[in-house]
Amino acid sequence: MVDATGVKIHGIATGGAGVGRLADGRVVFVHRTAPGDEVDIRLLEERRQWARGEPMRVVRESPQRRPAPCPHYDRCGGCTLEHLQYPAQLEAKRNIVVETLRRIGGIEFSGAAGEVGSTASSIAPPEVVPSPREFRYRNRVTFTLIRRGSGRVVAGFHELNAPGQIVDITGACLLPEEAIAVAWSHLREAWGEDAHRLPSGSQLRLTLRASAAGDVALVVDGGYGPGRPEELLERVPELSAIWHRPGGRGGTFTLLAGRDEVIEEWSDEEVALSGAVFLQVNRSAAALLEEYVLELIGDIVGRRVVDAYCGVGLIARRLARAGAEVFGIELDEEAVAEARRGAPSGAEFIADRVEAALPGVLPADLVIVNPPRAGLDPAVPAALRATPPARVIYISCDPATLARDLARLDPGFRVRSIRSFDLFPQTAHVETVVELECDTM
Length: 441
Hints:
This protein is an alpha/beta fold and 441 residues long. Helix content is 22%, strand content 32%.
């Protein structure tokens, strides 16, 4: 059934859907379309000002299109842009960042991408630095496993247009690093009927994470009881460790079998991976982002730095070794313990919420914030404006919360530069680094 014919797609929305207009003027969002497409669509959801649809026929194809190489792409919601040529993906992400910062943050853009802004109200639009690897880039992948009864198991990602459903995903998925893809294929073969070698429960979250050396750890969220982890280790030779957190989020990870830590070499740092320790999923693109941040920071000898939402303290460690006095703040106590284990002199780590700890470590010459997708608690911009550092570097994984927080920092701070990095090829997600200067210094 076709509800609208000849819909012209003119852009890509934040979630990865193509954007067009219906004959009545309403905006319509259609996944699996490209700017320049003309499509006949079936409407899936209708509201007063917008609608959501799916393509039934591509009347005219955009030159930005390509055949999606992944065999799961038709239904899987894990990727949303794989049908676009890679340069077109980068262009779409740049437009998402620009439009979001303009609409929510009130930032005006002018000039060429990558230039430094010359006025408080105008700045050049960001370039998007491509990922060195377009496929096989994720060092951490999380799958949802559902037990259907009668021994049947489905494990994979949520379906694109029916997120309550799980699409069964094999090792042919093109997102994981090769070591994870192989381990996932073998794990699916080894968990047995009704996945009885895994912890019990109707639904589990299975995370596979790999080190640069190819060691793979399995982290099981949810369920009850240990299952038969030793049998899994025997049957899946790629696995080095199996961790479990019964009941899901909020509990403590327990090592069920294998090594109690998997060592990851991250640039010039060594990190012990355990149940919950977070690192960026795209190691090669993350290295480019980290190099850029260190370039922005410049000479840091004798400076006081706050690294908020610091994780395992990779940037904080480097800055301390370069001669700075660094205070890292991180809520995750396990990450703080790992940060302290590898900390040089000059680095102190605080296990607390950033909004609670930040006022106590200000003033500072530089504050780095790298919050989760929800962005900054309102108390954080308030603290920065009350005791302003000379500079703030904001590393964001969500353009909307970034834009909101930049508006909260104005007046008080001026955006000096913006650059985005494609840490998540084939998806609409994008990482953005914003450098801000205090207006009063």
